[in-house]
Design a protein that fits this description.
Blueprint lengths: L3 H7 L6 H7 L4 H9 L3 E5 L27 H7 L3 E7 L7 H24 L4 E3 L3 H9 L3 E8 L10 H7 L2 E5 L25 H13 L2 E3 L5 H10 L5 E5 L13 H9 L3 E4 L3 H4 L6 H12 L9 H17 L7 H15 L4 E3 L19 H9 L4 H21 L3 H5 L1
Parallel strand pairs: 1-2, 2-4, 3-4, 4-5, 5-6, 7-8, 8-9
Helix pairs in contact: 1-12, 3-15, 12-13
Bound molecules: zinc ion.
Protein name: Peptidase M19
GO molecular function: metallodipeptidase activity
Organism: Pseudoxanthomonas dokdonensis
């Protein structure tokens, strides 16, 4: 599938004007509740930015436009205490060479996350448990849980999961947008290959249970999600997924599966990826122009500030020439409120796909997060329910998963 840069290019170039407007819509009461809550997001793709030359998490990257949505200044502004920082691996060839590349990529990204932590000991800290998250946020630092999106780095040797666990991995997603050796994706045009999890995928579930790693069914097919719920001894999550009954995209899940997830104690974290929220009609000329632009920058890890500025300028030209429909904050809330009604507030969280294509008009970066708290108050949710949505529900699952681990897993 396409490189991450083209994924981002296909997303939105979000107007910064919307940010200023939104800040005025948050009441003092909502701000106070938001500050009090432990605010976690389950899908921060930000580690992909760590290797960019000159890029530092401590700097404000508003000038990057929607290309960069998470950094310390904007986390502070939006009251984001932290969350799960993702080791994302694009699905490559499923042969020895492809598996080796995926293995190296995963380990390199894990190392880069640790380098970021080592460089910022006063502001960021690795979290290995729910208690860690509460303690770290209580000290005013940012919480760094580590997750994996697409288990392909484990394809050649699934026992590597123990090494990842020792390095801090606490959440594991099975697939990305294509099928892999562990299971089926929700969006592979070839359709199901395993009818859910492969035998290796089922073994991986057992291994994750033993180690106390939360299983994540986002991107995986509905059959995989059903099997994860059935096979896992402890509840699972969907780290960034929206509602199929609001917009019928295969990447979203329907009400029946939502209810099953909730009944099993799991939590769905609602995604803010525009293409999964509303129907954006295909526009081949636009897509061609975006792909041509992406092809000019094949290595996203090497993008300089000048490259980003050039990309944003080219993006503006493409947006003017081939305008596309854009999802809005109201579209996001339609999914969130529907899911809250179907699953119940104890089974919902937030995973907006920041730095991975997420963000909508009016919710352009993590600085805008208090708007969600305001909208939840407006919809009648209680302070306790809103605190659960922002982090309590996630930590409940993490506690259950770690309590269910085998002693060796807990101590490693
Ligand atoms: Zn994703």
């Amino acid at each position: 599938m396409t490189l991450r840069i083209s994924t981002l290019l296909c997303g939105l170039l979000l107007a910064t004007a919307a940010i200023t407007a939104s800040a005025q819509e948050v009441s003092a009461r909502a701000q106070a509740l938001h500050q009090q809550a432990l605010v976690l997001d389950t899908h921060l793709d930000t580690p992909a930015n760590f290797p960019r030359p000159g890029w530092d998490i401590s700097d404000d990257h508003s000038h990057d436009g929607s290309y960069s949505q998470v950094d310390l200044p904007r986390m502070r502004k939006g009251g984001l205490d932290g969350g799960f920082w993702v080791i994302y691996t694009g699905q490559g060839a499923r042969d020895a060479e492809g598996n080796r590349k995926a293995r190296d990529h995963g380990l390199l990204r894990m190392t880069q996350i640790h380098e970021m932590l080592a460089a910022h000991p006063d502001t960021f800290e690795l979290a290995l448990s729910a208690d860690d998250a509460e303690r770290i946020a209580g000290q005013g630092k940012r919480v760094v849980f580590i997750s994996m999106e697409n288990a392909s780095p484990l394809a050649s040797d699934p026992s590597l999961l123990s090494a990842y666990h020792a390095l801090g991995l606490r959440m594991l997603g099975i697939t990305h947008v294509l099928n892999n050796d562990f299971g089926d994706s929700s969006t592979d045009k070839k359709g199901p290959e395993w009818n859910g999890l492969s035998p290796a995928g089922k073994a991986l579930v057992a291994q994750a249970n033993r180690l106390g790693i939360v299983l994540d069914g986002s991107h995986a097919s509905d059959q995989v999600v059903e099997q994860l719920i059935a096979l896992s001894k402890t509840p699972i999550v969907l780290s960034h997924t929206s509602a199929k009954d609001v917009f019928g995209h295969p990447r979203n899940i329907d009400d029946a599966l939502l209810r099953k997830l909730a009944a099993s104690g799991g939590v769905i974290h609602v995604n803010a990826y525009g293409g999964y929220l509303i129907d954006i009609p295909a526009n081949p000329e636009r897509e061609q122009a975006l792909q041509a632009l992406a092809d000019q920058y094949p290595d996203e890890s090497q993008l300089s500030e000048a490259d980003i500025a050039a990309i944003l300028k080219a993006r503006q030209r493409i947006d003017q020439q081939y305008p596309a429909r854009q999802a809005s904050f109201d579209d996001y809330m339609r999914h969130l409120l529907h899911i809250l009604k179907v699953a119940g507030p104890e089974h919902v969280g937030i995973g907006a796909d920041w730095d991975g294509g997420g963000g909508v008009l009016g919710l352009a970066n993590v600085g805008d997060l208090p708007r969600i708290t305001q909208a939840l108050l407006d919809a009648g949710y209680s302070d306790a329910e809103i605190k659960g949505i922002w982090g309590g529900n996630l930590l409940r699952v993490l506690r259950a998963v770690q309590a269910g681990a085998e002693p060796a897993g807990q101590s490693s």
